[in-house]
């Protein structure tokens, strides 16, 4: 029997198509749908973290509209990402208990001081050159914060274990840009990559509480955050007290609203015992007020 | 003057006959448009990253066009031996240098204008507004900066033996100035006296191309216009350096044997 080459080719193409359709779903399972992650891991290796850091710095540069210390002014470069969220946090100004946000004003002043890196021009060339450069320290506002999102997305893609990327992006998404769902999805993505992160849980709780007004779910998430904080930070010489302050104060407020004054007192006392707030007086006052409420609750009617 | 215009016309024709500009423009357009389709958190109105990438590609492309075009002008004439009939016209050597410079600079200006039109179109489509004065300022200052780069490459083309060496050295020098030019004096303060003195000398003698590059950032971050008086001064600064390099190129070329 003599076979036509065209028929053989058609047969082979059909077989190839059938095998490909059968194998494709299995091949996806082999890589667990993380082809791009693996590809980046192979191509970039550990340099991914350096690049991710660079992307995060680029987001910070955008947040400052281009006014940022160069590699030659690194002593002035921001050491953390706190300034990227504290500057426009309206909630911070209205915290009654003087929780961890009490230090925000001080942080802001420190940030202003650090960002004054230019100093007076050393000569006429530098003076003239500054006419072309961006020389004023400003932060993005009025929804313009969206401009930092591409760099944060890229940073998270390169290094999924960088917590600040998720918290900063989620903060702006839910706070100013009205994208609570996207913020939740991004935080959950961060949580799946960093299941022990109390920072992400803290922000997830804030999202449930402030955006979805779901106090019960927020409480559960914050409790998980507190457990993780105690597991990870208790033994450290320099624990993240700001996070503890935020978690305990928020949880205490929830407990108080539900009439669980004893639990609220317990949480605030934990914050006081760990010196979580740089300004403990408001917290102590709150504890006293809660104790009075507790005593009133305990008295028979 | 007529000889200079004739020579520059030949260089401009060469630019649109060669594929360099088309390839770089297509790459810039494709990368920019592809980046423009990326969706970040379903958030509309994100535009600065796109302006950043587009302007970076424009800067890269314009530098490639300027350096590569300028670096091969005189060596190509010498290699193909067309320099002899050219100089027999009669055209003097300074006219050759000036004509080649004018041609390269005008050709780069044409290419840059196309790039900025594309940039304006992208910004207009994404932002819904145009800032023609800012674009014009950025275009003019970048074009002025390219005059310095072209004259530097022309000087290199009569000093170095091969165009490839000239292109590489020009790129290293230009990128070096863009990265550390502004900080040479800060570095000088950290060095021992002799090295510090040399670095200070270097700081005051190099053309500060980074000033012109800073205009790119002003465009990305929607900053106010630079004073027009400062633009004129920057143009004069660029013109002075371009003139200096062209004079040096003419002085070297004047006594250079033409046989390759």
What does this molecule look like?
The complex is a heterodimer of chains A (about 300) and B (about 260). Chain A is built from 15 helices and no strands. With about 300 residues, chain A is mainly alpha-helical. Chain A has a single domain (about 40-115, about 135-300), classed as Serine Threonine Protein Phosphatase 5, Tetratricopeptide repeat (Alpha Horseshoe). Chain B is mainly α and about 260 residues long. Chain B has one domain (about 1-255). In chain B, about 80% of the residues lie in helices and about 0% in strands. Chain B is built from eleven helices and no strands. The mean pLDDT of chain B is about 90. The interface of A and B includes residues 126 and 147 of A.
The shape of chain A, in one word, is flat
Number of helices of chain A: 15
**CATH class identity of chain A:** Mainly Alpha
Work out the strand percent of chain B: under 5%
- Biggest β-sheet strands, sense, barrel of chain B: none
- Rg on CA atoms of chain A, Å: 26 Å
H and E string of chain B: HHHHHHHHHHH
Label the overall shape of chain B: globular
CATH architecture verdict of chain A: Alpha Horseshoe
Given the helix and strand composition of chain A, which structural class is it?
mainly alpha
Helix content of chain B: over 70%
Q: In the residues of chain B, how many domains can be counted?
A: 1
- Low confidence ranges of chain A: 89-94, 96-100
**Content-based structural category of chain B:** mainly alpha
CATH topology description of chain A: Serine Threonine Protein Phosphatase 5, Tetratricopeptide repeat
Low-pLDDT stretches of chain B are none
Rounded to the nearest angstrom, the radius of gyration of chain B is: 20 Å
Distance N terminus to C terminus of chain A?
Answer: 104 Å
What's the helix count of chain B? 11
Distance between the termini of chain B: 28 Å
């Amino acid at each position: 029997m003599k076979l036509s080459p065209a028929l053989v080719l058609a047969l082979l193409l059909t077989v190839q198509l059938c095998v490909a359709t059968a194998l494709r779903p299995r091949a996806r399972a082999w890589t667990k749908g993380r082809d791009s992650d693996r590809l980046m891991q192979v191509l970039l290796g550990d340099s991914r973290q350096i690049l991710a850091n660079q992307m995060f710095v680029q987001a910070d540069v955008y947040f400052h509209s281009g006014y940022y210390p160069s590699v030659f002014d690194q002593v002035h470069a921001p050491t953390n990402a706190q300034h990227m969220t504290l500057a426009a946090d309206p909630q911070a100004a209205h915290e009654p208990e003087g929780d961890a946000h009490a230090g925000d004003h001080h942080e802001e002043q420190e940030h202003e001081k650090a960002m004054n890196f230019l100093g007076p021009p050393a000569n006429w060339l530098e003076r003239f050159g500054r006419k072309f450069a961006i020389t004023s320290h400003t932060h993005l506002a009025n929804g313009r914060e969206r401009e930092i999102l591409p760099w944060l997305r890229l940073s998270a893609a390169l290094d999924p274990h960088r917590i600040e990327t998720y918290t900063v992006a989620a903060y702006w998404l839910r706070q100013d840009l009205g994208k609570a769902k996207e913020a939740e999805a991004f935080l959950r993505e961060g949580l799946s990559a960093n299941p022990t992160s109390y920072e992400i849980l803290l922000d997830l709780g804030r999202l449930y509480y402030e955006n979805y007004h779901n106090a019960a779910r927020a409480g559960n998430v914050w409790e998980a955050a507190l457990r993780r904080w105690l597991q990870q930070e208790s033994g450290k010489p320099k624990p993240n007290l700001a996070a503890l302050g935020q978690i305990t104060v928020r949880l205490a407020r929830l407990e108080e609203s539900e009439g669980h004054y004893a639990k609220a007192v317990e949480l605030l006392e934990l914050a006081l015992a760990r010196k979580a707030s740089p300004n403990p007086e408001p917290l102590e006052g709150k504890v006293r007020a809660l104790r009075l409420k507790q005593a009133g609750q305990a008295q028979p009617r | 003057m007529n000889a200079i215009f004739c020579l520059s016309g030949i260089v401009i024709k060469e630019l649109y006959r060669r594929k360099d500009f088309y390839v770089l423009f297509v790459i810039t357009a494709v990368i920019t448009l592809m980046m423009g389709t990326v969706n970040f958190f379903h958030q509309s109105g994100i535009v600065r990253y796109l302006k950043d990438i587009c302007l970076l590609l424009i800067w890269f492309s314009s530098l490639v066009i300027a350096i590569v075009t300028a670096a091969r002008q005189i060596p190509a004439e010498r290699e193909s031996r067309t320099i002899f009939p050219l100089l027999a016209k009669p055209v003097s050597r300074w006219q050759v240098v000036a004509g080649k410079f004018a041609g390269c600079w005008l050709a780069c200006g044409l290419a840059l204008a196309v790039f900025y039109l594309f940039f304006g179109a992208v910004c207009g489509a994404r932002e819904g507004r145009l800032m023609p004065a800012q674009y014009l300022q950025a275009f003019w200052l970048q074009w002025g900066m390219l005059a310095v780069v072209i004259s530097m490459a022309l000087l290199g083309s009569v000093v170095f033996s091969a165009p490839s060496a000239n292109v590489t050295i020009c790129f290293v020098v230009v990128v070096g100035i863009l990265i550390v030019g502004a900080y040479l004096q800060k570095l000088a303060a950290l060095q021992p006296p002799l090295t510090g003195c040399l670095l200070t000398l270097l700081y005051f003698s190099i053309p500060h191309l980074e000033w012109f590059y800073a205009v790119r950032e002003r465009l990305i971050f929607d900053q106010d216009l630079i004073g027009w008086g400062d633009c004129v001064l920057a143009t004069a600064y660029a013109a002075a350096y371009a003139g200096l390099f062209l004079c040096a190129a003419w002085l070297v070329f004047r006594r250079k044997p033409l046989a390759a």
